[in-house]
Predict the 3D structure of the following.
Amino acid sequence: MKEKITNILKQIERDYSIKILHACDVGSRAWGLANNDSDYDVRFIYVHQTNHYLSIDPVGIGKKKDVIEIPIHDSLDISGWEITKALRLFRKSNPSLLERLYSTITYYEKFSTIKQLRKMVSDGFNAKPCMYHYLNMAKQNYQQILQSEDRNIKDYLNVLRPVLLACLIEKNNEFPPLDFNTLVDAFISKGKLRNDIDSLIKYKVTGDVHFQSTHIDSFLEKEITRLEQRVKTLHSNNAHISSDLNKLFQDTLLEVWG
């Protein structure tokens, strides 16, 4: 499948006259929770030719779109962000962008841009917006569980994963690992809760869907309430990295296009 994905990405480069800098998975495969029916959620970052940026209309305005979206086909969900969009999101510590940088599955990477960007994460990381992002995701998904009479594994994982991500951000003040088992090992000790989470992981990988756990319910309710109060006390880290990101963008154009 990696070869097929790479070939599709190269065709996208030809079709759109761009260069792809990085492509990865951001779904269940990157979390270590895939089963035979899981899609390939491929996300890439790309750069246009230099002349595309030398105009009075910035990228993202009007016809100069800053995203490329390919229709879903044969379990392949592929889309990309243009580099200046990605760098602006990086400046805000956007979790979706950071998940792409730290994905456990890389399908394609060329040039030095992404490597350089990863080196800048610690200087520009802002825990507060990341925690808010995952906390809001957890709250919305948990409401769906509460309103459902038939709970399933995916519902639980869609709450448990962002809760654990928020907890690890709070604990270490850095962007956490994305592998779900690593998250669990870092925060959940042995006991009834851990046993139920281990069962949840086992059933997800084998494809079973129905699941309910009072221990996980209790943990989620407690942590969501606690995190709601904790995130209000955090101060934003307004790192001044715009000049570094501008230089990285300029260096990317030189490296890619000459």
